[in-house]
Specification:
379 residues, Aspartate Aminotransferase, domain 2, 2 domains, seven-stranded mixed β-sheet, 14 helices, globular, binds pyridoxal-5'-phosphate
Length: 379
């Protein structure tokens, strides 16, 4: 039986050729290709600056550090997100304070997030969940009123837009992922966009051990450069091999997003009359890249989420459970044993992801639609 995978990176000979060119050039670590990728990513998103990082988790961690967040501080974020969102806060010694999400688009609920602000709150971290933008302006307004920072976890949101502008251009610290499960990939990889020159400079410093001179500076000089390490730094660099792949991927990002949106539109057109399923909803001004296509199963459905997954799996259609909740994971549950987030828990437990990737065969799209329809018809 042919298996339809949940996701597949869209990589071609062009990426392989560019990676090969870098390998053969002899300069494989962070260098000119990383710089070019940063410039092109900033231009694409409309951000002033972009800083390439080894992955999005590290990007979030550095964003916490440059926001001066540390032990004793609180950061409000969704529990219903990939665990890296909350982990990046804990790395600094600060405490993630979990707020509820919207039951349909799975993004942080501004009112609930605001209700959790205390004198210790230093920031709100929003996540554009599975590519659907959160209501950035609502959070900007709350953060400005309470004089706290806004950090965007845009791991899934390359190519998404909010109010006509690309994600990456709206606030000071926006973190992206290029993991293969994302819309474009560099194997592993991340990027931070920022409008703030000082933040850009500190991010660049921290990602390379806080070494005052870069590898390129040292390579290009014949004089003995002193290599002072000016604060506690990290090795969070991207390689030029990854960046070369990223440049090609970025050149196709809009095309990939349009194709994903066509597939999603096809699913919505053909599944939305099933009354026990809730389709993703894109409100006016919100433009998603459909990094994942999640459907929610109603509580009174004759077919449960798990049964639906099982029966699709039997026919060779891969699915995944909905976005996890961090507070119920072993690494968190003792710390949050008294916390109940009914909206997030129900959204997580009753949703599933259907396969979506580019290119996807028309026959496979048809098979998924037919099988889902068939399962509900048989009940
Ligand atoms: C919302 C969110 N944040 C952060 C991450 C972490 O990204 P990375 O794997 O690049 O560290 C992911 C990855 O799945 C994610 O979905």
């Amino acid at each position: 039986m042919n298996l339809i995978p949940i996701a597949k990176p869209y990589l071609t000979n062009a990426e392989a050729d560019e990676a090969s060119r870098v390998v053969l050039s002899g300069w494989v670590a962070q260098g000119p290709k990383v710089k070019e990728f940063e410039e092109k990513f900033a231009e694409y998103t409309g951000a002033r600056y972009a800083v390439a990082i080894s992955n999005c988790t590290a990007a979030l961690h550095l964003s916490m550090i440059v926001s001066e967040i540390g032990a004793g501080d609180e950061v409000i974020c969704p529990s219903m997100s990939y665990i890296a969102t909350a982990n990046s806060i804990r790395y600094t010694g600060a405490t993630p304070v979990f707020a509820e999400v919207d039951p349909v688009n799975f993004n942080l609920d501004p009112a609930d997030a605001e209700s959790k602000i205390t004198s210790r709150t230093k920031a709100i971290m929003i996540a554009h969940q599975i590519g659907m933008p959160a209501d950035i302006d609502a959070f900007k307004e709350i953060c400005a009123r309470h004089n706290i920072k806004l950090i965007e976890d845009a791991a899934c949101a390359s190519g998404s837009s909010y109010k006509g502008k690309k994600i990456g251009s709206h606030s000071e610290l926006v973190c992206f992922s290029f993991h293969p499960r994302k819309v474009i990939t560099t194997g592993e990889g991340g990027m931070i966009t920022t409008s703030n020159e000082k933040l850009r400079d500190r991010l660049k410093l921290l990602r390379q051990h806080a070494m005052a001179s870069s590898s390129i500076d040292r390579h290009n000089t014949s004089s003995a450069l002193s290599e002072d390490h000016v604060e506690l730094g990290y090795n969070y660099r991207m390689t030029d091999i990854q960046a070369a792949v990223g440049i090609v991927q970025l050149s196709r990002l809009d095309e990939i997003v349009m194709e994903r949106r066509n597939i999603a539109a096809n699913f919505i057109r053909n599944l939305s009359d099933i009354k026990w399923l809730m389709m993703p909803e894109e409100k006016e001004g919100f433009f998603t890249n459909y990094q994942s296509f999640a459907v929610r199963v109603h509580n009174d459905s004759p077919v449960s989420r798990d049964e639906l997954m099982l029966r699709l799996g039997e026919k060779g259609i891969s699915t995944r459970r909905g976005v996890m909740t961090a507070h119920r994971e072993t690494a968190y549950k003792d710390l949050y044993s008294k916390l109940s987030l009914p909206v997030s828990e129900s959204a997580s437990d009753n949703s599933l992801m259907l396969p979506i990737f580019v290119p996807m065969l028309k026959d496979d799209i048809g098979k998924i639609i037919e099988r889902v329809r068939g399962i509900f018809r048989e009940t």
